Amino acid sequence: MNNTANKPAVASSTITRDLRELDVKTDNIYESIVVMAKRANQISNNVKEELHQKLSEFASSNDNLEEVFENREQIEISKHYEKMPKPSLVAVQEFLEDKIYYRNPNKE
């Protein structure tokens, strides 16, 4: 049996969440949101850096307007990244599955 069959996929669009589910781990909904927001920023930065690296592989030094619109490799890569789940949705899923390490120095 495939291991990914039992794992819930990250939602591809916004879904309604029970807020009581989000504050169980931190006892504070605002702290939970900050943790998820910081993780979403990390994910976003990593994806953005990865995308720029892949796009730069196909960039030519003598781009003219016609070549920019006809660069199929860059278009396909961009479409792939557009279809990926949003970083905020990935961060929420990771938070709910206890895949994010976080600490609050004020509570220590």
User: What's the rounded overall pLDDT mean?
Assistant: 83
**Secondary structure tally, helices:** 5
Overall shape: elongated
How far the N terminus sits from the C terminus, by CA atoms, comes to 43 Å
Number of beta-strand segments: 0
Q: What is the radius of gyration?
A: 19 Å
Sheet having the most strands: none
Order of helices and strands: HHHHH
| Percent in strands | under 5%
Residue share in helices? 55-70%
* pLDDT < 50 runs, ≥5 residues: 1-7
By secondary-structure content and strand pairing, the structural class works out as mainly alpha
Q: Can you offer a commentary on this structure?
A:
- It is a single chain.
- The protein is an all-alpha fold and 108 residues long.
- It is built from five helices and no strands.
- The protein has helices at 19-22, 29-57, 65-70, 72-83, 87-96.
- Helix 2 packs antiparallel against helix 4 (72-83) and helix 2 crosses helix 5 (87-96).
- It is elongated.
- It starts with 18 loop residues before the first helix and ends in a 12-residue tail after the last helix.
Entry keywords:
mainly alpha; 0% strand; 5 helices; 108 residues; 56% helix
Brief overview, please?
By secondary structure, the chain is mainly α.
